[in-house]
Amino acid sequence: MLSIAVLIGSLRQGSYNLQLAHTMKERYINKLDLEIADIRSLPFFDQDIELNPPSAVQQFLRKVGAADGVLIVTPEYNWSVPGVLKNAIDWLSRGDKVLIGKPVMTAGVSPGMMGTIRAQLHLREILASPGIQARLLPPAGSEIYISSAALKFDETTHRLVDESTLRFIDRVVDKFIEHAR
Ligand SMILES: Cc1cc2nc3c(=O)[nH]c(=O)nc-3n(C[C@H](O)[C@H](O)[C@H](O)COP(=O)(O)O)c2cc1C
NADPH-dependent FMN reductase-like domain: which residues (predicted)? Predict the structure, then answer.
């Protein structure tokens, strides 16, 4: 079974993006071993300490480096990726550069109509940069933009319950498994 490190671009307890990650962890439990890699405890990237980073950074790099692939689930902030996620990716782009060649898929949820399109487009550019060079799941037919979150997530269970969205994600996950093999 593929081990997948999950990066969540929101630190909010009630985050819809976190709820999507939990939904996927449970739904694909027989196909993927999804484990959230904590980005909350990472300090701001600082080139002065990159060669001898704090243990939170070392653990994070080890965890992502050891995974067979990465799932990034992120909201959109001001038409781009949240700073906390960019900071985590900047750490991953240095040292052993653990994202080079790593299979990556992305997804995002917004309460509004646009479903994080702009953020994920920016994210794909970032993931192609020289220090990162992730092996991104080709976007055609695999773009997970979840809009109108309040209508699609259950307020009590905090899980995605919209059937057509879930079936679409099923297909993308199967493509990702093929891509990551
Ligand atoms: C600083 C900030 C900027 C935001 N900018 C956008 C944006 O550009 N596009 C958008 O669709 N939503 C934007 N939002 C609304 C977020 O989509 C919303 O807060 C969402 O619930 C955050 O994701 P989460 O539920 O996973 O925490 C912004 C929210 C914040 C706090």
Answer: 3-130
Mutate to test the pocket of ligand 1, among 13, 76, 84, 147 (most ligand atoms within 8 A of CB): 76
* Residue nearest to ligand 1 atom 16, measured at CA: 110
**Structural domains counted in the chain:** 1
Mutate which of 78, 81, 123, 155 for ligand 1 pocket (most atoms within 8 A of beta carbon): 78
Residue with token string 């809009």: 147
Q: What is the pLDDT along the chain (181 residues), one digit of tens a residue?
A: 999 999 999 999 999 999 999 999 999 999 999 999 999 999 999 999 999 999 999 999 999 999 999 999 999 999 999 999 999 999 999 999 999 999 999 999 999 999 999 999 999 999 999 999 999 999 999 999 999 999 999 999 999 999 999 999 999 999 999 999 9
- Domain span at residue 140? 2-180
Tell me if residue 160 falls in helix, strand or coil: strand
Query: 81 C-alpha to center of ligand 1: Å?
Result: 10
The CATH number given to whatever domain includes residue 19 is 3.40.50.360
Please identify which residue in the block is written with the tokens 């904590």: 38
Report yes or no: 108 and 17 within 8 Å, Cβ to Cβ.
yes
Q: What share of the chain is helix, strand, coil (3-state, %, to 5)?
A: 40, 20, 45
